[in-house]
Design brief:
Two copies of one chain form a homodimer.
Chain A: E1 4-10, E2 17-23, E3 26-30, E4 32-34, E5 36-37, H1 47-52, E6 58-60, H2 62-67, H3 71-76, H4 80-84, E7 90-92, H5 96-101, E8 106-109, E9 112-116, E10 123-126, H6 128-138, E11 142-144, H7 156-176, E12 183-188, H8 194-204, E13 211-214, H9 223-233, E14 243-245, H10 251-260, E15 264-266, H11 269-275, E16 278-279, E17 286-287, H12 307-311, H13 314-322, H14 326-352, H15 356-363
Parallel strand pairs in A: 4-15, 5-6, 6-7, 11-12, 12-13, 13-14, 14-15
Antiparallel strand pairs in A: 1-2, 2-3, 8-9, 9-10, 16-17
Helix pairs in contact in A: 6-7, 7-8, 9-10, 10-15, 11-14, 13-14, 14-15
Chain lengths: 365, 365
């Protein structure tokens, strides 16, 4: 069944909306957060644990899987879902952002990106066509166009050159796509300039993608610029398609962006922070190595229903952290992912009850 | 309810036996293998996963928990079972072997062991009385006497001196014990000398412990010596009490020792090998980093019913291993522990059907 997006409800006081994406591997209720599974695993979590936390879709990284174990290997083994034992929907990025992050190890040309592997230094050339070929081989439910992520800061002329390349590649990606079961999202660039964001949008929107992403945000720009771009551009993205704010963000960022009309998010914050012992709660976040938890028999968050909070004390988690135990990362990650999923559930409930604006106010601590 | 050991059946052709230990936290069917949870966690496993693998009892290390987070902290937090969320039986060692392993960092005196912490270099003195106090604070179902582990090689006179100290400490441990709910096992030393093993046994057996262990095995001696000691001394240990071969071993070692009448085992082999990518099967063991598994879609062991074998390919496990993913250690450990638990189930079935001797023969690959 081809990809569908059903808009279910609009919040009364904000631009927030409730929807559902129908994919070959199941339904995703939006606004949705996608835990990041870079190398074919959401770090330290079993797929059943991800699902039990409430996640309906995960993100995986084309760049990493292309280099190791190789997309053709994954395809031979039955595709990414089978390979990693995750039966639900998967969105793959295009590899563009990862390559962008390589800095000096990559060079952008009109036809694609030349880069060196972070693993073995081998040379590779990633074209828009190949980005699609890889994502088709992986079997992603949602694929992303190859784009050039404009850095911050960038001059208007650099930014314009970059968004034009992104538009050219978007068309090439669309042309390269062969599988009607897999959705393809376009990406709007334009850096920190509202007029250039509009220009990028005017180029990408007519290509009639299955969804639209705001790219090149959260790349080092001040938060007020990110918020301004999100607030100004999101309402201009096609309303009957899902809208995805790439690489965002903190709980506060997510609530803000939802109020602007964003439907999808991904970010390494909950998983990475967990591994470093920063645990989210609705009040003060918990730095688990803090000495004050040494004999604290309470869970991380007494209002949390996650497996970790139901069964373990802060004192035990602190002990595991200092002992360098793998279980520390497992239990911390379960908590942070569940925290993010509870946030998304709370957001969806708030929208369904027309009180997202109120929810957002209560959130600005 | 105080500790009980019920001998259920003797194998017809060997000295192997079936039994059950009744402890305050549940029943343990013997012969039993105890996964090692050194720092209050069986590395990388959730307690539910340990249980799902079939484990009925785990071992935890007094030395590590005494140093971090401290036995008094564990006691304040409700004891080790609650602390680590493991509701089943726990055996704690005395700390003696861990201190022995510190080498130059420890000094043995007639009253106990002086040692320096491997964490911060702080000085500690562990007496027999304190070993019991710590294990009582942790709330172990089965405690072990403080012993001096005789190194290999050792002269007869060194060995005799050492076993005499072990006997003195055994009496002191017994005297120090205050909680009738917790069982206490004595340890027979005597190194590689059968006559000195007999001498140690003659000192320890009359103290009427709840069970008896062979200590100071698998400390570097040739395997034929270990087998000879096990074969010669095990039948002399009191028959109505559980018999525990400490720190052993490979599957082959376990089958051999069971045939001699041993009921209990612990060893880091399954967990440590798992973390290094060595996976057990009933035929050839799998070195997961081997290039031949690159595109192998089979499970580690097609006859294994573990979560890992039911859901993941060798190719995926190889990928996770090379990617340095935490999930590699989680999935590998689940498999190896389940493999050991299936071994113990097979052993118990073989004894119940009077064919342990046959089983042992089929096992010598």
């Amino acid at each position: 069944m081809p990809f569908q997006f059903n808009l279910k409800k609009q919040d009364m006081g904000t631009s927030a909306r409730l929807g559902e994406m129908v994919t070959p591997h199941g339904i995703v209720h939006t606004p949705a957060f996608m835990p990041v599974g870079t190398q074919g695993t959401v770090k330290s979590m079993l797929p059943e644990e991800i699902r039990n936390c409430g996640a309906e879709i995960i993100l995986s990284n084309t760049y990493h899987l292309y280099l190791r174990p190789g997309h053709e290997t994954v395809k031979k083994l039955g595709g990414l879902h089978k390979f990693m034992h995750w039966p639900g929907p998967i969105l793959t990025d295009s590899g563009g952002f990862q390559v962008y992050s390589l800095g000096a190890l990559r060079k952008i040309t009109p036809d694609g990106v030349m880069f060196r592997s972070h693993i073995d230094g081998s040379r590779h050339f990633l074209t828009p066509q190949q980005a699609i070929e890889i994502q088709e081989a992986l079997g992603a439910d949602i694929m992303m166009c190859l784009d050039e992520c404009t850095p911050y800061p960038a001059t208007p002329s650099q930014t314009e050159k970059s968004l034009n390349l992104t538009a050219k590649w978007a068309q090439q990606c669309k042309n390269a796509k062969t599988n009607s079961e897999q959705a393809l999202f376009g990406i709007v660039q334009g850096g920190s300039y509202l007029d250039l964001r509009q220009q990028s949008l005017d180029q990408i929107a007519p290509l009639n993608f299955d969804g639209y992403a705001l790219g090149g945000v959260s790349v080092g720009e001040p938060k007020d610029i990110m918020y301004k771009i999100t607030e100004s551009i999101t309402p201009l993205l096609p309303g009957h398609k899902p809208r995805y704010l790439m690489g965002v963000g903190t709980p506060e960022d997510i609530v803000f962006a939802v109020s602007c009309g964003i439907d999808m998010f991904d970010c390494v914050i909950p998983t990475r922070c967990a591994r470093h012992g920063l645990l989210f709660t609705n009040s003060e976040n918990v730095v688990i190595k803090n000495a004050r938890w040494r004999e604290d028999n309470n869970p991380i968050d007494e209002n949390c229903d996650c497996y970790t909070c139901k069964n373990y004390s802060r004192a035990y988690l602190r002990h595991l952290y200092f002992a360098g135990e793998i279980l520390a990362m497992v239990l911390n990650t379960i908590h942070n992912i569940r925290h993010y999923m509870r946030l998304m559930e709370d957001i969806r409930t708030a929208i369904s009850e027309n009180r997202l604006g109120e929810f957002k106010k209560s959130f600005n601590k």
